[in-house]
Design goal:
Order of helices and strands: HHHHHEEEEHH
Number of helices: 7
Radius of gyration: 26 Å
Distance between the termini: 37 Å
Shape: rod-shaped
Amino acid sequence: MIQIEKTGDWDKLINYLHNAGTNIKARVGDATDNAGWYIEGTIKAHFTNQDLGWAAHKAGTTAARTRSYTKKAMSYSKKNLATRLTKLKIPFGVKEGKPTLAARLAHGGNQILIDTGSLMDSVTYKKISFDSGEVGANRMSGTANLAAIHEFGCAKKKIPARPFMKPSAVECTPKVIEFYRQALLGATK
């Protein structure tokens, strides 16, 4: 019979292996939270900065700006409004009234629309489990989800797409990967 003698701190190794699963789970959970909050913050920053290809303006002044521009635009004829919208490539419906056309011209064609900030405020991160979560926006107007309308547009209503979720997710991907990489590296130390 051969007897094998162990050397070194086997109790420490056994304890490490026993706790490794819990340690990894906790670190991955932290990475999930960090990633979710990072994506949420990035989306909200894009609303505020209007920097995903949208015309730049300050979110806090949008409502006042729109009111003032709409009032000015209302002085134009419906035909003049339609001509201006066509030149700027801002889609509109032929049956839309003068106030709607004036508002479309005031808002511009491709910027995320911020009147009250409620859509931006509805962007939240929700943890599902230690290794998954979701970031979404749930701002309803009647039966329509405003986030979906902004993200994909609505051809039937001549509303252009103003995506903010997907571009933000793509932008955040390298940082999210780094959160998880650091979590796993830290768990093995």
